[in-house]
Amino acid sequence: MIKGKRLLVVSAHAADYVWRSGGTIAKYIQEGAEVCVVVLTFGVRGESNDLWKAPGATAESVKEVRKGETLAAAEILGVKNIEFWDYDDYPIVVDKALEERMVRKIREFAPDYIISHDRFDILNPDHNTVSDLVFRCSVMSNSNGVKMEGTKTTKQMQIFGFEPHQTELSHYVPGQFIDITPVYEKKVAAMKCFKAQSHLIEYYTQRAFMRGNHARRLSGCQDYKYAESFARTFPVVSTELL
Amino acid sequence: MIKGKRLLVVSAHAADYVWRSGGTIAKYIQEGAEVCVVVLTFGVRGESNDLWKAPGATAESVKEVRKGETLAAAEILGVKNIEFWDYDDYPIVVDKALEERMVRKIREFAPDYIISHDRFDILNPDHNTVSDLVFRCSVMSNSNGVKMEGTKTTKQMQIFGFEPHQTELSHYVPGQFIDITPVYEKKVAAMKCFKAQSHLIEYYTQRAFMRGNHARRLSGCQDYKYAESFARTFPVVSTELL
Amino acid sequence: MIKGKRLLVVSAHAADYVWRSGGTIAKYIQEGAEVCVVVLTFGVRGESNDLWKAPGATAESVKEVRKGETLAAAEILGVKNIEFWDYDDYPIVVDKALEERMVRKIREFAPDYIISHDRFDILNPDHNTVSDLVFRCSVMSNSNGVKMEGTKTTKQMQIFGFEPHQTELSHYVPGQFIDITPVYEKKVAAMKCFKAQSHLIEYYTQRAFMRGNHARRLSGCQDYKYAESFARTFPVVSTELL
Amino acid sequence: MIKGKRLLVVSAHAADYVWRSGGTIAKYIQEGAEVCVVVLTFGVRGESNDLWKAPGATAESVKEVRKGETLAAAEILGVKNIEFWDYDDYPIVVDKALEERMVRKIREFAPDYIISHDRFDILNPDHNTVSDLVFRCSVMSNSNGVKMEGTKTTKQMQIFGFEPHQTELSHYVPGQFIDITPVYEKKVAAMKCFKAQSHLIEYYTQRAFMRGNHARRLSGCQDYKYAESFARTFPVVSTELL
Amino acid sequence: MIKGKRLLVVSAHAADYVWRSGGTIAKYIQEGAEVCVVVLTFGVRGESNDLWKAPGATAESVKEVRKGETLAAAEILGVKNIEFWDYDDYPIVVDKALEERMVRKIREFAPDYIISHDRFDILNPDHNTVSDLVFRCSVMSNSNGVKMEGTKTTKQMQIFGFEPHQTELSHYVPGQFIDITPVYEKKVAAMKCFKAQSHLIEYYTQRAFMRGNHARRLSGCQDYKYAESFARTFPVVSTELL
Amino acid sequence: MIKGKRLLVVSAHAADYVWRSGGTIAKYIQEGAEVCVVVLTFGVRGESNDLWKAPGATAESVKEVRKGETLAAAEILGVKNIEFWDYDDYPIVVDKALEERMVRKIREFAPDYIISHDRFDILNPDHNTVSDLVFRCSVMSNSNGVKMEGTKTTKQMQIFGFEPHQTELSHYVPGQFIDITPVYEKKVAAMKCFKAQSHLIEYYTQRAFMRGNHARRLSGCQDYKYAESFARTFPVVSTELL
Predict the structure, then answer these.
(1) Which residues of A touch D125 (CB under 8 A)?
(2) Is residue C238 part of a domain?
(3) CB distance from B222 to chain C under 8 Å?
(4) pTM of full prediction above 0.90
């Protein structure tokens, strides 16, 4: 049951969480989960190619547009709890402060699930950096010898990986399909907030259709029209076969 | 929910299903699932080393002992629906008749899940043969152009793979842990029916402890004392993260 | 240069070659290559689910529809040289006669390239059977000790693998992207001949868009709007970096 | 022949070397090898969960208990040469000083074999850090252009990797089994020094039984009752098949 | 110690065993091992390209040349125990009789080691067939329930795989290097018996040099000038680190 | 066509580019390409073992010899554009300045192809460091939000990986063979400039022969006598099958 579950999403750049998990986020919120989104960078250097083509674009102006777009998208998805940590990207450089902030965030939010970047993206080293960061911090968060004032040790949570842009070249294998049919319109609307990236809107709209096709084929369930997929870091652990 | 689910288990030799999935079977039966076990061979040639040491042992006498033991084990697990197809082992040779019988069995039983041997066992070619057989037959069973009198096309079912004896050398990766704590005693009792294989009883008893440790560690759930693990053929497809 | 090149396409079922390589075929024909398509089965049992839903459908009636559709598709693509070997599918059973016929076909056509099914399709054992058949026959065709009346030994040709339906689960990795922008309309029109499979038409239309996106991203060439991808069996061997 | 061989063991935390290689260490010492154990951290933050449950536990008190336990274990194993480098764990941060100290240690001890953490542990980033450190330092140690006062360049040594806790998820493959039957009691006694981790004592006791079973099965040698396994970094290089 | 060891070599075609293991064979014989070589086919169809270019070449004439060459090579290597089973190649077809003959051979010879083709050769399906055959037959040979008149069950032996022609494309990884420096001249002389394949003589002469370089680099032992490498099927199981 | 193409080669140590890509470089220059070679270090600590054996050798004297040798080699290959960045090796430490210099170099040279170290070299951590550096910098170079005065954003270029010394242990797979027959003598002459490394001259001379053999076998083209191979980072993207 989704109601009452806690889902933490960590996004390297401003739009990653929308393209890759917007449907799952919208669904979790709609069904009563607590969702927190951490956006590490606005993607000013690495993921704003079209915005830089505007005359007179500056890092600040690009950042403003990105922030406006992603806040609009978050609102459509129903996300109230979103944080912008405003690091530089391309490259994202991890230091001790970022590491500690992430451990603290995980402990304070105490997620049942974390969704972030999968281990390897052949085209985007920032995604790899964030994947590694989130994983290491989850381990520290779970260890009760890592003392951090005002925090409580977490229990091992499941960690899921976003689909990278080119999946096969990035050794990505879907381990979890989530039906997003009931919230599909919200995801499409949220993606449309990123006006300068129309090619990606079509790309990820089609991807939801493709993953829906896969989900139907693998489950025999004809109700799954649109889906998102994620890599699994850990196996399923449960009291029945899933 | 387990109640009402249909689970088909296909075992290359007489004891495979007990060592590798006895706990899951006992649990499914205890909680109201329908379970059918197909035993393809008695393992007379390949998995009865100790029985052949008995003076005057013959293929028939070995087969009788194996059959008695596995029926006793099945009874302890609560299995009422068990079939002995009585093929030769070492090697198991697949012919058209066996293929059709398996397709028919899958269609008639219409399982939600199949558990059988995983793709590769470095020490046992029969296991590989059966893995391949079961998979191919499931595909044919699911195709409505494969006409077979008196049968109905099945829907895609999930297929799980047994742990091979030496997992790492067989490229086995656990994709699903099942807590078997509530039925652990039944599994141990069932294993003890195979008197001539006492080393395996201890081996798989310890394995349940080890997988229980893994299940706790990966889930944070301290109730999981004993577990079985299976490989996944397909990803999880569901309406929530699992 | 495509002109004068010889391309052999081997398709397990009647439509495989259209979904997966229709654009490449159309392009090769349009630019003056010789293309031969071998269709091993009509896919009556395994890939005609919707046709079997027609009242009174029989193996013969299904076969007729499939043949008509694939001939219509071939005509749109410009394929004049197409052969129907009319084997049964689900499963395709390879015997010595089929093997020899394939070796003979390869020798007689003497292709520069073969396109057929890639090594592993997680959902379709027939595709794996054909992949293996084509590869083994190419090896025999290339060996001058394999005597076959009226044939000439071939030189080693490049062999490419179709995209399977679910690429990541089938360990498929694109090794060659082909721009099909100039013939995209032909491919779409050819796919539309398979009236009973409208979901696949949309699926593979979107796939051409997705692979076009990938091709642009990987090459920096903005002209590539639609593409097909193939697995490579062998590395590129050439006089310059490609 | 073990006598006279030199074995260096590098352990990320205070107990790693006991769980994973205690038997091999005891055997090497018993048969006349020189063994040196380097313990990089006491595992205060990452591997002392139970100790932190003691009322009034502090980093210092936890460290004292850990040090006492591991010294007791070392004594049972016969280890006289053990060094505590006392770095922080969770995370272990590698700097130039640590790197140089490790190169110097390798050169001064001049091991025939190094045992340390294997390349990837899915649950413990510190283990990965140490694996990488040891490997890089062995390369520098072997290069005669890396000048370091008072040291002599080493020859290429074999490097073995510990079993991680969850082997299959960590892509661990045993490449070397060592029979520890003659020293099994010592290993069990040494493990019992870690009083707060009784679940691990049972876990690694069973693992020795399991690896003994594997060793017998793979070698046909019935004398191997208990074993440890290690990953190989390099192939066997020898004058006969092993 | 090599003296007294029993080594069985199974070669798909007449020359495979010379190119890939001629040095190891010569060494084992020179140092007092028992070596038996089984040549399954003369390689008339698949590995005699140059012989077929002789005017008037027939299957019989090619076979005679191949037999003469391989006998000459065997004599140089010191092989007295060589059997020609004279199956057809390209393709080698395995039937029940061949399987039983191989099981019988393994039981009668009772090897400590088997060397044959490794699991996958990207360019030679016959090699894959033989690899699979030998492995399956070794399993049956080791099982005491597989009754075969006049034979004794074997113990598990180590199984090593030949280097395929193009190693990286065949996923070949060296797991065992054998120094062949003392018998290098014999190997070169034996290879020269295959007059029609002078390009392979140079190829495998250089390979011995390359593997010698690798063996030195990995072991620090400067005496290894020439080497052969093999894949390992199983890990090393021993009483010390190797 | 090679004429007019721009090729950037990044070499961790002074001789890497000659052993691994000297033929390709010579060919590209001979046929009218622009080639730029960046040598990051002189390999004083890691790749000058023999030079350090000279009496009185110092870091400066070793560096001078290395520089002289590599300049002589470059001249033979026809390289006019070569830069020595003179970093320390063993280990190469990447800092922000190096990263920015590399991005700038890529942007200023605007290569169609980059050749550098492949992802993993089991024996040389410096090679892995450089592989990672070059890849990350290429990504930044291609992103128009990464502002750097006086530079222009590049288009995605193809990136090729050198063969490591021991290919199979380094998971190296050839993805591109380049015929170097027309410039083979130049490569041999260039290698001979490294007088202290005569064993490598023979090693890489034989490698060119071996890769030539592979190239012929895979392409059927008998003109390829000597070749170099490279790993591909990305698939081929083109308008025809290659």
Answers:
(1) 135-136, 139
(2) no
(3) no
(4) yes
